[in-house]
Design a protein that fits this description.
Strand content: 15-25%
Family: Belongs to the arginase family.
Cofactor: Mn(2+)
CATH architecture: 3-Layer(aba) Sandwich
Helix content: 25-40%
Strand order of the largest sheet: 2-1-5-10-9-6-7-8
Protein name: Arginase
Number of helices: 11
EC number: 3.5.3.1
Bound molecules: arginine, manganese (II) ion
Radius of gyration: 17 Å
Order of helices and strands: EHHEEEHEHEHHEHEHHEHEH
Largest sheet: 8 strands, parallel
Distance between the termini: 19 Å
Pathway: Nitrogen metabolism; urea cycle; L-ornithine and urea from L-arginine: step 1/1
C-alpha cells in the first residue's frame, strides 16, 4: 500500500437531518487515527477540515426534493479539488466524514485519474436514491446514484464530468434497508449487492473474496466507502440512520483485513460517525480500529 496518506476531514451534516455528524472528523482524530497509522509506518499528512458553508435555515428542500442542495454541492466541489491535490502529491486520500453525501466529492476527486474505478460501498443502505425516488430528500441517501450519473445535474456535475463510476464496477456490502426506487435501480443497472442474507449464508470471508474479485475486474483502482451504519447498531451506535441486524465489529474487521491482504484499496472514506448519538465515542473508536486493519494492522 501507498506509504503516504493524506487525511481530509469533511465536517458536513447537511446531507441528512441529525445534527452532530459534522463533528465526525474531530472525534475520529480524537480516537487516535493519526497515531494509529503512524505506528503502522505510514507518513500521514493531516490536511485538517474543509470549511463547509452553513445554510440560512436547515433542512429546506431547496428544489427537486433535495435538502440544502447548494451548500452540499459547494462542499463536494471543494472536497473533489482537495482530493485531486492530495492524489497529485502521490498520497492515498483518506477522507473522514461527515455524512455520506461527501462521497460524491471523494469519488469526483479520485475518478479524475482513474477512469475505471471500482467501488466497495459498505453500508446498511444503497444510497441510490435521486430527488425523484427519495422518501426523505436527504442527499446522504443519494451519493452512489449521483456517482453513476443519475439524479440532479448539480450533483452529477461535481468535478466537471459524469459518471464517476460504472455500475458494473460497484459492489454494495451489508445492505438491509433499500427503498423501492433503489431496488429498481439495482435491477436495472445490474449492481452487485451482498445483502445481509448473502453475508449470513456465505460468511464474510467468501463475500469479501467475491466482492474483491468483482471490483478488480478490469478496474484501475478501488475506492472503499464505509458508512459506519453498516455495522450492527450494537457495535456502532453513533450513527443517524441505524438499522438492526448488521455485520458485527469482528466481521467488519475481517472484511478490512481481507482488503489489506489483497492490497487493492487506493482511496477510502469513513463516514456518518455522530458523537451526539454515540456512547463514549465507541463508534469513532471502531472506525479507527477498522482503519488500522484496512492499513495492515495485525496482532502477530
Ligand atoms: N448514508 C446514509 N446513512 N443513508 C441513509 C439513507 C436512508 C434512506 N434510504 C434515504 O434515502 O433517506
Ligand atoms: Mn447507511
Ligand atoms: Mn451511506
Amino acid at each position: 500500500m501507498n506509504k503516504k496518506i493524506s487525511l481530509i476531514g469533511v465536517p458536513m451534516d447537511l446531507g441528512q437531518m441529525r445534527r452532530g455528524v459534522d463533528m465526525g472528523p474531530s472525534v475520529i482524530r480524537y480516537a487516535g487515527v493519526v497515531e494509529r497509522l503512524e505506528n503502522l509506518g505510514y507518513e500521514v499528512e493531516d490536511r485538517g477540515d474543509l470549511r463547509i458553508g452553513r445554510p440560512q435555515r436547515y433542512d429546506v428542500k431547496d428544489k427537486d426534493n433535495l435538502k440544502d442542495l447548494d451548500v452540499v454541492v459547494e462542499a463536494n466541489q471543494k472536497l473533489a479539488d482537495e482530493v485531486v491535490d492530495a492524489v497529485s502529491g502521490g498520497a492515498f486520500p483518506l477522507i473522514l466524514g461527515g455524512d455520506h453525501s461527501i462521497a460524491i466529492g471523494s469519488l469526483a476527486g479520485v475518478a479524475k485519474d482513474r477512469k475505471n474505478l471500482g467501488v466497495i460501498w459498505y453500508d446498511a443502505h444503497g444510497d441510490l436514491n435521486t430527488g425523484e425516488t427519495s422518501p426523505s430528500g436527504n442527499i446522504h441517501g443519494m451519493p452512489l446514484s449521483a456517482s453513476i450519473g443519475l439524479g440532479h445535474d448539480q450533483l452529477t456535475g461535481i468535478g466537471g464530468f459524469s459518471p464517476k463510476v460504472k455500475p458494473e464496477n460497484v459492489v454494495i456490502i451489508g445492505a438491509r434497508s433499500l427503498d423501492e426506487g433503489e431496488r429498481k435501480l439495482i435491477k436495472d443497472k445490474g449492481i452487485r449487492v451482498y445483502t445481509m442474507h448473502e453475508i449470513d449464508r456465505l460468511g464474510m470471508s467468501k463475500v469479501m473474496e467475491e466482492a474483491a474479485a468483482h471490483v478488480t475486474n478490469g478496474t484501475d483502482g478501488v475506492h472503499l466507502s464505509l458508512d459506519l451504519d453498516a455495522l450492527d447498531p450494537h457495535d456502532a451506535p453513533g450513527v443517524g440512520t441505524p438499522v438492526m441486524g448488521g455485520p458485527t465489529y469482528r466481521e467488519t474487521h475481517l472484511a478490512m483485513e481481507i482488503l489489506a491482504e489483497k492490497n487493492i484499496i487506493t482511496s477510502a472514506e469513513f463516514v456518518e460517525v455522530n458523537p451526539i448519538l454515540d456512547v463514549k465515542n465507541q463508534t469513532a473508536e471502531a472506525a479507527v480500529a477498522l482503519i488500522g486493519s484496512l492499513f495492515g494492522e495485525k496482532l502477530l
